[in-house]
Amino acid sequence: MGLSSFFKNLFGSTKESVTELANNAESTFEQAKEAAAPYIEKAETFAEETIDKVKEVSEPYIDKAADYANQAKETVSEYADKASDAISDVIDTVKEKTASLTSDADTPETITETVADVSEKSAAAVEEIGDEADKA
């Protein structure tokens, strides 16, 4: 009997000790949570203020970037028009020279189609650059 009562007392007191430790841990956690609440609020306020400052500071740069993108779009469009005109001139010159050198009627047409394809790709690239500039 002495041995069984020893184990009952040992494990019974262990159970009480564990329950007491759990209650203390819960109490300590609640105290820590309450103590940290003001610091958490300060950190949230600091983060919000910092984000607002970053937005305020970066706004002019974003506007400038949009302006530069629009200028680039205009410049590219201007040069695309000039390139298209130059390609048309080249086509005309090639047609004239090839017409005098050959009697094959398919060659000028093939050259015209090839140059027209290149011209269309250039125009598509200009539009794509313009669309990307508008997105920025």
Automatic annotation (TrEMBL):
Q: What is this protein called?
A: YtxH domain-containing protein
